[in-house]
Amino acid sequence: MRIVAGKFRSRILKPVKNLALRPTSDRLRETLFDVLGDAVSDSVFIDCYAGTGAVGIEALSRGARQVIFIEKYGSAAELIRANLHSLGVEIRKKQDEPQIEILPIDTRRGLAQLAQRQLRADFLFADPPYDDIDRCVTVLNESELDHVLAETGALILEHSEKAAAPEQIGRLKRTRILKQGDSALSFYRWALDESEEGGQ
């Protein structure tokens, strides 16, 4: 795996060893960040089911102000830490706010913690195991995403091309789906309420 673009462009990330992980491919990451574009710069980015941390590190490479990795498996969380270290990046604080953070807990608890902090992320990326998409959607539906994701924010769900990702997660409606090989990316944004729709 390599970083596609940004200040760490072409740097190699440590490979997966003896871990049941399916990292987001370089090509799919490139597609994802081509869509997100310049909005990643100075953004707050949450990488759920982070695995190797490749997606969050890509966001960091492209100028994200704050990146939070949520990964429940200790060995994977250590791999994220090792990949950051290999790039000369240390988990650090800026103005008393973590700029890079690893939450070694499951996504449900991680999002609950961030909701309590009312983080207001610009992007929330979720890449669960492809055979666990239904459970991931349940977790997202039950999470207080309105206390985690900014009004202009986006949720991106990676899933199998064959999986039927929902049209809506909570108040978030799918606005776009991109398919590439066996994988797909579904993009969700906040739906307008009836009063907002009526005023347009």
Chart the SSEs and their pairings.
Layout: H1 26-36, E1 44-48, H2 54-61, E2 66-70, H3 74-86, E3 93-94, E4 97-98, E5 100-103, H4 107-117, E6 121-126, H5 133-142, E7 149-160, E8 168-169, E9 172-180, E10 183-190, H6 194-198
Parallel strand pairs: 1-2, 1-6, 2-5, 6-7
Antiparallel strand pairs: 3-4, 7-10, 8-9, 9-10
State the gist of this model.
With about 200 residues, the chain is α/β, with parallel strands linked by helices. The protein is about 30% helix and about 30% strand.
Describe the structure in your own words.
The chain has helices spanning 26-36, 54-61, 74-86, 107-117, 133-142, 194-198; strands spanning 44-48, 66-70, 93-94, 97-98, 100-103, 121-126, 149-160, 168-169, 172-180, 183-190. With 200 residues, it is of the alpha/beta class. The chain has a single domain (26-198), classed as 3-Layer(aba) Sandwich (Rossmann fold). The strands form 2 sheets. The chain has an 8-stranded mixed sheet, sandwiched between helices. Mean pLDDT is 88; it is low at 194-200.
Name the structural class. alpha/beta
Number of helices: 6
Question: What is the name of the CATH class?
Answer: Alpha Beta
Strand arrangement across the biggest beta sheet:
5-2-1-6-7-10-9-8
Principal-axes geometry comes out as: globular
Gyration radius over CA: 16 Å
What percent strand? 25-35%
